[in-house]
Write a structure and sequence with these properties.
Layout (H helix, E strand, L loop, with lengths): L14 H7 L2 E7 L6 H10 L9 H6 L6 H11 L6 H17 L2 E8 L1 H5 L5 H19 L2 E9 L4 H11 L8 E5 L11 H9 L3 E6 L5 H9 L5 E4 L7 H9 L4 E3 L1 H6 L11 H6 L4 E3 L4 H4 L3 H11 L5 H13 L5 H18 L4
Parallel strand pairs: 1-2, 2-3, 3-4, 4-5, 5-6, 6-7, 7-8
The protein binds adenine and zinc ion.
């Protein structure tokens, strides 16, 4: 066993640089949510699509959300410029370049195929474009990645089954399935059978729960869908028994701080419950969700969080990065290597000078 990291020796002034440089994994990023307005306009021109906004600035000005649905309406409209395999590649490659700048070593990336197949885009173009970007990111940026296919919960379970069927010819290109889109009124149990099928097929399972929906949705995602991670999950604090369970079972929560502020889940970053979740012993991770819409990529999420919440220091920064590795769907040997490099960065930051 190596010596413990002397967190108290790390000067507070070094924290922002440490947050930027520490290696980390991102486990909650919707690739369609990384589509920047500039790229939306470029792809619209390339594909001959008319946009209802006259300029990049006008589109960006429309990013004032009051809740999840007000965001989703504009997010699905933005995704309508994605037509060809190259469009999916370009979108994902742009994300990977940002991730590399943020010292992300591993990304588990959500994609929403129903958003595209409903417009007549073949599943093959979606998955192949994303997969090629993942492969190139590994070769050129040294970022490993996995794709997770999300079912849109506002659509039917039958539609989810058809989507799964259509994606199975490319099953080696995605490791798991998730559940996203409008949460309230679309509880996890609506998708119990399709998740059971995905479990039989050997997929990793995750689900958005407890973002806008109640704590009970987190429980049903765990009990009925048998998911391994909960995306968001911040409303778990409404049930102390659930918080205790999440801590005991080390169920990871992929929390998205800037998203939670933009979608009014919390009124201000200083009111975010992430410090309380960490203190309760939960495996909390920090993620960007839809960075093009919510004001920042992964490091911006860390920086905004730590700036607003002075009780978060070097120890918590280390814990959040370590949690991101613990919660990743990778082999233990890979995880152990990441932990060594994380510890090295923190030991170096504790050195005088
Ligand atoms: N799809 C993209 N971002 C989402 C979020 N934050 N919640 C639910 N569905 C989403
Ligand atoms: Zn999300």
């Amino acid at each position: 066993m190596s010596n413990p990291i002397p967190f108290e020796a790390i000067p507070h002034a070094r924290l922002p640089a440490l947050l930027r440089t520490m290696p980390k994994a991102e486990l909650h990023i919707h690739i369609e949510g990384s589509l920047e307005p500039e790229l939306i306009f470029r792809l619209a021109a390339r594909n001959g699509i008319a946009l209802p906004y006259p300029s990049v600035e006008a589109l960006r000005a429309a990013y004032a959300f009051t809740d999840l649905q007000s965001f989703l309406d504009i997010y699905y409209a933005g995704a309508s410029v994605l037509i060809e395999e190259a469009d999916f590649f370009d979108m994902a490659w742009a994300y990977f370049e940002r991730a590399a700048a943020d010292n992300v070593v591993h990304a588990e990336i959500f994609f929403d195929p129903q958003t595209h197949t409903a417009r007549g885009v073949p599943m093959e173009k979606v998955i192949r474009g994303l997969h090629h970007a993942c492969r190139r990111a590994h070769q050129e940026l040294r970022i490993s990645s996995k794709l997770i296919l999300c079912f849109l919960r506002h659509l039917s379970e039958e539609d989810a089954f058809a989507t799964l069927e259509a994606a199975l010819p490319w099953r080696e290109h995605f490791i798991g399935v998730g559940l996203d889109s409008s949460e309230s009124g679309h509880p996890p149990e609506k998708f119990a059978r399709v998740f059971a099928r995905c479990r039989e097929l050997g997929f990793e399972l995750v689900a958005h729960a407890g973002e806008e929906g109640p704590a009970s949705y987190i429980e049903t995602a765990l009990d009925l869908l048998q998911v391994r991670r909960i995306d968001h999950g911040v409303r778990c604090t409404e049930s102390p028994a659930l918080v205790e369970r999440l801590a005991r079972e080390r169920v990871p929560l992929t929390v998205c701080p800037l998203s939670n502020i933009k979608l009014c889940v919390f009124p201000h970053m200083s009111r975010h419950n992430l410090p309380a979740l960490l203190s309760a012993g939960l495996c909390v991770t920090v993620n960007s969700d839809d960075p093009a819409y919510f004001g920042g990529y992964l490091n911006q999420n860390f920086l905004a969080l730590f700036e607003a919440l002075p009780e978060l220091g070097a120890r918590e920064a280390w814990q959040l990065a370590a949690n991101s590795f613990e919660a990743s769907f990778v082999d233990d040997t890979v995880r152990a290597d990441w932990r060594l490099s994380l510890d090295e960065v923190f030991r170096a930051a504790a050195q005088p000078g």
